[in-house]
Amino acid sequence: MRLRAVVVTFAVGAAGLLPALPASAAGVQRPARAGAGAAIASLRGHRHAKVCAAPSAHHASCHAIVDLDAVTPLATTATPPQGYGPADLQKAYQLPSATAGLGKTVAIVDAYDLPTAANDLNAYRAQYGLSSSCTGCFTKVNQSGGTTLPAANASWGQEIALDLDMVTAACPNCKILLVEANSSSLTDLGTAVNTAAGLGANAISNSYGGSESSSDTTYDTSYYKHPGVAITASSGDSGYGVEYPAASQYVTAVGGTSLNVATSSSGTTYNETAWSGAGSGCSAYDPKPTWQRDSGCSRRTVADVSAVADPNTGVAVYDSTASGTNVGWQVFGGTSAAAPLVAATFALAPTPAAAATSSPASFPYATPTGLNDVTSGTNGSCGSYLCTAVTGYDGPTGLGTPHGVSAFTAFTAGTATPTPPPTTSQQLLGNPGFETGTAPWVASTGVVDNSNGEPAHSGSWKAWLNGYGTSHTDTLKQTVTIPASATSATLSFYLHIDSAETTTSAAYDKLSVQLVNSSGTLLTTLATYSNLNKASGYAQRTFDVTGYKGQSVTLRLTGTEDGSLQTSFVVDDASLTAK
Length: 579
Hints:
By secondary structure, the chain is of the alpha+beta class. It is built from eight helices and 30 strands.
């Protein structure tokens, strides 16, 4: 009999451990500094922790991951910090850091205050010999632009330190504006974004995210739509799945890579693969921007571009405000490192006058040759480019990582020619693997589930209908529109049926798979399964639904159970694709 678990959320701080991530294979290669490999190789096998707790609804969590075994409080030039420093990052991404960025401002938006931000930034710059050509290079304000700062928070403080160091590492000549939100609510963080834009930032970095919601399109226009301003958002650190604001149509969603060093007789090279923790996938709510042409998502696809994020190939950061036992020189990863790096790359690029009314998120799609294409690695088991790095565009790394700044500058109107999509199939279902919550599915309470009672086909979440051993009905449904232009449309999902029923002749518990129209009228029953179909493991079920093209249809699964002996119908990795 099925037992529903009580879900308890734990706040994971600096002491919460994540498994060490594996080393990456060789991918894109380009010149590197000698000696970098040993410093990064020494990070393998370390323990890691997400520094911010999981967010509540309409709130965000920072995307920083700290290396718990690489803390070096008193680094000197003779014993440099572990992790990549400015020279590594500038060479890996071929950035014109020494000559570009003058007169540009990069804003960082985070929640709460880091009291030691200015001193910590100065310590980082002094360690690496970053001379400044600007006056008043660092400014800190609250979310309204004032000087009364919010309460300090050590976890978000680690995020702030990471963001500051990544911007100054990539663009030492840039001014930095730190805008601290009163809280981690999306409305406070969004208000801070508006303030950053109002104060003249050329680029705004957002290293945080939370669950998608039906409010996201309102947040889009209220906070993240600033023509001419490059706004970056980290894609997340939990693998395949989408978070907001990375899903916003107005931001550049930044995924993550593992940035490794290889040394051979011909010299030293950097190479990259998709990081297993990077977020990616199809938005459940945000529309697809016109410049994004991949066909696997009917709505917005995450990510657009990427940069180093794997904590196993992490970056050096200085933070003198203690968070638990972590203080001083530390190593961080997460897409929180990638988002400010890309924001700084936008600031390094030339800014033609035409850029003032442009959408900087479209720039990389116009010049994909200005990016290092990352072609290996995966962040999940979705079975497509949405979770696996491929040639051209893919979910975990987008179009690739910076190779200079040509992909981050405005293009002449009408010249954008985005890279063709790697597949001709269009995924119509949102959240097909249930990894980002329930929406846009509509389900009975407890159906979308990540308990250990029944395993998922992939990831951690699945839809578990019935399994109580009492009279019970569960439903799961989602509405999609099958394009009239489709030449074919196919529904598939993985189904596992587990039952305590022993009969070989009577169907006591049933699951019906149906399509209904917008009025709720039954169009067809595609299949009916029962306790008689029980079997170990998952089996893929596939149906041709081409006959319903041009229609808005609701896929509806209904599980019914009688008064004794449980039967569980477990569904995962659904797909409704149109070609």
